[in-house]
Specification:
The chain is an alpha/beta fold. It has helices at residues 8-48, 51-67, 71-84, 90-112, 131-138, 153-163, 177-189, 201-209, 241-249, 283-304; strands at residues 126-129, 143-147, 167-171, 192-196, 213-217, 226-231, 234-239, 253-260, 266-270. Helix 7 links the parallel strand 3 (167-171) and strand 4 (192-196). The strands form two sheets. The protein has a seven-stranded mixed β-sheet.
Length: 321
């Protein structure tokens, strides 16, 4: 079979396309690393500035973002209306939502400055009673810390890592790549081993077998199917991962109650261990396990709703279009 020769013009076009594709890829890489460097420079500047000034500005900016309104602000108010109950007035909900955004502003500062030395002793803000977690780890099966998106989990996790054992978790794969690199650096600095949620089951089980702690958020389904349960008296879809991991490993669920106080301190404690050893991996077993988790999550929300970053739909009845 004779292959016809390509014309010089066609060869030139192919070469040009390849060169252009490589140039675009190189430019993208340069832009990506430049964005990473720029973000790191900004976080360094923020880390150097006086913490009181930075925190006050961050809280003020958070409230300003909330005041501008938008779908997330409306969704937060809808969620807080359920969490706070029918006795809460619209003014009460509005004030609580402003506190949430102020806390979120502080959280972003705390998170993105973790990569640098703690010049301003932000770790001293954490006041957490971890005696229940220590007791669970003494049993030798590890512990699955379940919490909600509130206050500053990473700073609390770093303190727990210092006191007890390594902490592993599962998280989303972040895009764009430059932002994912920064998050990975921050997590390494916090001594948190974060695995991609789609492939996290085995490494988390191995961590529990080593009698380590695993930290998982229980208030939002990020990937996969959730389980409908009763949360604060309304039907919500919660992730089944923590309950499934507890059933498979025999490790207890350790509820972590956290909130931010008005002065910026992060306060927390652990509730009593929730054992799911009497359940199996059937649909009924998972339903019961997630409901037990939801019962304690209801208590968590009552404890720290003013610093609960509930910007996504939680209850179908409170979903904002």
């Amino acid at each position: 079979m004779v292959v016809p020769e390509q014309s010089p013009q066609r060869n030139l076009a192919i070469i040009s396309r390849n060169v252009l594709a490589q140039a675009v890829e190189l430019i993208g890489t340069v832009v990506s690393y430049s964005a990473t460097a720029l973000l790191l420079a900004v976080t360094l500047l923020v880390a150097i500035l006086p913490a009181r000034l930075v925190d006050a500005v961050a809280a003020w900016l958070g409230r300003r973002v909330y005041a501008r309104g938008g779908r997330r602000s409306r969704q937060l108010r809808a969620n807080l209306s359920v969490a706070m109950g029918p006795s809460a007035s619209a003014q009460d909900v509005h004030a609580a939502a402003g506190d949430v955004y102020a806390s979120y502003g502080r959280y972003l500062v705390e998170y993105f400055t973790m990569i640098w030395p703690d010049w301003w002793r932000r770790h001293r803000r954490v006041e957490i009673d971890s005696s229940e977690l220590a007791a669970a780890l003494d049993a030798g099966r590890g512990a699955i810390i379940v919490s909600m998106h509130a206050a500053s989990f990473e700073i609390a996790a770093r303190e727990l890592r210092r006191r007890h054992a390594p902490i592993s978790s599962a998280g989303e794969r972040l895009r764009p790549h430059w932002l994912g690199r920064v998050f990975a650096m921050i997590r390494r600095q916090a001594k948190i081993e974060v695995h991609d949620e789609r492939e996290a089951a085995r490494p988390l089980l191995r961590a529990l077998r080593r009698n380590e702690a695993v930290g998982l958020a229980a208030d939002r389904v990020i990937i996969g199917d959730g389980v409908p349960v009763q949360l604060c008296g309304e039907t919500a879809i919660l992730p089944k991962g923590p309950a499934l991991l507890a059933i498979m490993s025999g490790a207890p669920l350790m509820p972590a109650f956290t909130r931010r106080l008005p002065d910026g301190r992060v306060q927390g404690y652990f509730g009593r261990a929730i054992h799911l050893r009497d359940l199996d991996r059937s649909n009924d077993g998972l339903q019961e396990g997630v409901q037990r988790m939801a019962d304690v999550l209801t208590e968590m929300i009552g404890y720290g709703y003013r610093s609960w970053y509930a910007l996504h739909p939680v209850w179908q009845a409170a979903r904002v279009p």
